[in-house]
Design brief:
heterodimer, A: 129 residues, mainly alpha, 5 helices, globular, B: 143 residues, 7 helices, 0% strand
Chain lengths: 129, 143
């Protein structure tokens, strides 16, 4: 693999992972604003709940990011081997989500959660070998 | 902090694991029957929509997204993601027992690591609360 293709491969993997992190964090922020869906459904019914979710701007932007992520993933798979791209994207997304959740969602990511995130990232990498 | 999940919320987490893994497996089996899709045979994607395995896979993945967003309405992202990673284990076990694939030692090690990770988060709270977030939930402060 030459230098340019190395940049293309890892650039596309990083881009797909970043889109996934942005999408997941926006969806999580949106759902936090909407509130517990069981309680929302008890108050507003099923259609009202669907309306509340779909009218949340953060949720919609997050879903758009996930849709873009799907097409970016197709591009990444066209320039990188599946055996490299799939575990690398999954692992980077898990670790990126933990950092983003701590910074942007202000979640209390304690040692137990960091350990779980690292174990999942390495576990996924091992499963894909 | 909210430590305890209701039985229905455990059901949502289990549904996330099962719908994602079984949905992916059904899509995989369906696309094997449809054949390889490339730029010169994009029409096969339309043909794939009439494959029952692909249809069932799409339905399950829609269910996955609904359950996933539901879980994020009452749990942290850093709780939901590792807790539902058990789906990878389900996929590996489906591969071994349904598709008769070989599971190498490294894959068994991966399964063990993910099971440990699920154990780590399962023992902690599903949502960590901060004063600002409590105010947001109460509608006092903007997010």
């Amino acid at each position: 693999m030459n230098g340019q293709s190395l940049v293309t491969v890892w650039g596309s993997i990083a881009f797909v992972s970043a889109l996934a992190v942005v999408g997941e964090v926006l969806i999580a922020a949106g759902m936090r604003q909407v509130g517990d869906l069981d309680e929302v459904r008890a108050r507003r019914g099923l259609l009202g709940t669907i309306g509340a979710v779909l009218s949340n701007a953060k949720f919609v932007m997050g879903a758009l990011c996930m849709a873009l992520n799907f097409f970016a993933m197709l591009f990444a798979l066209s320039v990188a081997d599946l055996s490299l791209a799939a575990p690398a994207i999954a692992a980077l997304t898990y670790i990126g989500n933990a950092f983003a959740a701590k910074i942007f969602l202000r979640e209390n990511v304690d040692g137990r959660r960091w350990l779980a995130t690292m174990f999942v990232a390495f576990g996924v990498a091992l499963l894909s070998r | 902090m909210k430590h305890a999940l209701r039985p229905s919320q455990y059901g949502v987490l289990i549904a996330i694991m099962l719908t994602a893994s079984v949905g992916d497996s059904l899509l995989s089996r369906g696309m094997e029957q449809v054949g390889a899709v490339d730029m010169h045979h994009l029409g096969l994607l339309w043909h794939a929509l009439f494959n029952p395995y692909v249809d069932a896979g799409i339905l399950l993945l829609i269910g996955f997204f609904a359950c996933y967003t539901t879980a994020l309405s009452w749990a942290d992202l850093t709780f939901v993601m590792p807790a539902t990673a058990f789906g990878y284990v389900v996929i590996a076990l489906i591969g071994k027992f349904w598709l008769h694939e070989h599971l190498s030692l490294s894959r068994w090690a991966g399964i063990a690591m993910i099971v440990c990770a699920v154990g780590f988060v399962a023992g902690g709270p599903s949502r960590t609360e901060h004063e600002e977030l409590v105010q947001v939930d109460a509608g006092v402060a903007p997010l």
